[in-house]
């Protein structure tokens, strides 16, 4: 049994030579993007180096000699004998066992009398220490690197890049659990890594909108708002009697907003939307969806900066980006009827 498994794994070792040659340059940007700005992360596979993450960018720093980085303290401390089983030789004292390589999800070591022999799983698979085998990536808990919680302080919460409504939390034993914000069809919250809280979906910059509770079972293809942006929508396939659980997310072109009632992309002045109305509008003044067309929003680089009200009961006219004495009822304003 053991020999068979070893044979299979050794087959993968040969693959190592041909596939993985160099670590990519953007490696730590990927890791840093998961954490709150300013987080210090022990460099995977080392004891005395750490990555200082600022604005999603990582700088590798080294502790003074004879010191190790302690993730819980966020600083370098005097090295204690066998102080951390994840940063030294992971095979120490082991024989005939597999351990995860702390630098990559798909790599592992086979321990032979304490000596680590490197190997890697087939493409698309991750090494799983608990079952001592390679699993398909989707079935594994590995995020970016193996044992990621060993690199940061306990109770750290970090992003799930596959779905903005989900996040991970490290426990005291160095493992992480997947957690979810509220995502019903009526209320959508996304994880905000800076505050460590779930907040209104439209307050979070998201590159993986949650597909949960979006589509309903239907006999025709339908478009559903992502409920977090004014331009983004999902394409729900007609899979009646079941709902499409993996709809494609896409966006209206810049200068257009998605209208779920009409099932199309339309001029923003005709679409009610209270998310970021500056999305795709660049730097300009746009009509607000509140205060009966008296309000406008100042957009700078596609972001809402301030919301202001026209003087003397004037109405905002988006076509000329100015307040006007003319009565204007854009269809995007409240009090529309
Ligand atoms: C991240 O932290 C650095 C240093 O504290 C700060 O200068 C920078 O503005 C922060 N970035 C964001 C996006 O808050
Ligand atoms: C990260 O820092 C490097 C060097 O300081 C810089 O060249 C690179 O553009 C930065 N990347 C990001 C995403 O800010
Ligand atoms: C580091 O440890 C070694 C071996 O224990 C010792 O010889 C050396 O003096 C130490 N260096 C410092 C700077 O403490």
Provide a descriptive summary of the structure in words.
With 337 residues, the chain is mainly beta. It has helices spanning 2-19, 27-32, and strands spanning 40-42, 49-54, 57-62, 67-70, 75-78, 97-100, 107-112, 115-120, 125-128, 133-136, 157-159, 166-170, 176-180, 189-192, 197-200, 222-225, 232-236, 248-251, 257-259, 264-266, 284-287, 295-300, 303-309, 315-317, 322-324. Strands 1-2-3 form a three-stranded antiparallel sheet. It binds 2-acetamido-2-deoxy-beta-D-glucopyranose (3 copies). The site of one 2-acetamido-2-deoxy-beta-D-glucopyranose has 4 residues, from loops. Pfam families: CBM_14.
Describe the structure concisely for a colleague.
Residues 1-22 form the signal peptide. With 337 residues, the protein is mainly beta. The protein has two helices and 25 strands.
Strand-helix topology:
Layout: H1 2-19, H2 27-32, E1 40-42, E2 49-54, E3 57-62, E4 67-70, E5 75-78, E6 97-100, E7 107-112, E8 115-120, E9 125-128, E10 133-136, E11 157-159, E12 166-170, E13 176-180, E14 189-192, E15 197-200, E16 222-225, E17 232-236, E18 248-251, E19 257-259, E20 264-266, E21 284-287, E22 295-300, E23 303-309, E24 315-317, E25 322-324
Antiparallel strand pairs: 1-2, 2-3, 4-5, 6-7, 7-8, 9-10, 11-12, 12-13, 14-15, 16-17, 17-18, 19-20, 21-22, 22-23, 24-25
One 2-acetamido-2-deoxy-beta-D-glucopyranose is lined by residues 37-38, 54-55.
């Amino acid at each position: 049994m053991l020999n068979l498994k070893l044979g299979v794994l050794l087959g993968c070792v040969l693959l190592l030579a041909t596939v993985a040659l160099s670590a990519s340059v953007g490696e730590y940007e990927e890791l840093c993007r998961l954490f709150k700005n300013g987080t210090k992360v022990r460099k995977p596979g080392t004891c005395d180096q750490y990555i200082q993450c600022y604005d999603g960018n990582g700088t590798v720093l080294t502790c003074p000699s004879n010191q190790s980085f302690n993730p819980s303290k966020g600083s370098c401390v005097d090295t204690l004998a066998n102080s951390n089983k994840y940063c030294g030789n992971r095979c120490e004292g082991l024989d005939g066992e597999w351990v995860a390589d702390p630098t990559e999800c798909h790599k592992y070591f086979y321990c032979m009398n304490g000596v680590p022999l490197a190997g890697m799983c087939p493409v698309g698979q991750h090494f799983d220490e608990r079952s001592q085998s390679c699993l398909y990536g989707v079935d594994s808990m590995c995020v970016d690197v193996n044992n990621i919680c060993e690199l940061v302080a306990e109770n750290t919460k970090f992003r799930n890049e596959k779905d903005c409504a989900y996040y991970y939390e490290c426990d005291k034993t160095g493992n992480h659990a997947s957690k979810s914000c509220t995502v019903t069809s009526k209320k959508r919250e996304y994880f905000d890594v800076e505050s460590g809280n779930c907040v209104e979906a439209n307050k979070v910059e998201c590159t993986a909108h949650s597909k949960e509770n979006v589509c309903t079972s239907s006999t025709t293809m339908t478009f559903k708002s992502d409920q977090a942006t004014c331009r983004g929508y999902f394409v729900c396939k007609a899979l009646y009697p079941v709902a499409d659980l993996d709809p494609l997310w896409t966006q209206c072109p810049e200068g257009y907003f998605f209208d779920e009632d009409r099932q199309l992309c339309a001029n923003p002045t005709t679409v009610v939307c209270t998310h970021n109305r500056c999305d795709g509008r660049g730097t300009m003044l746009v009509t607000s969806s509140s205060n009966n067309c008296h309000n406008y929003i100042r957009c700078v680089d596609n972001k809402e900066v301030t919301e202001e009200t026209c003087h003397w009961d004037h109405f905002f006219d988006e076509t000329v980006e100015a307040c006007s004495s003319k009565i204007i009822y854009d269809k995007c304003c409240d009090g529309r009827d």
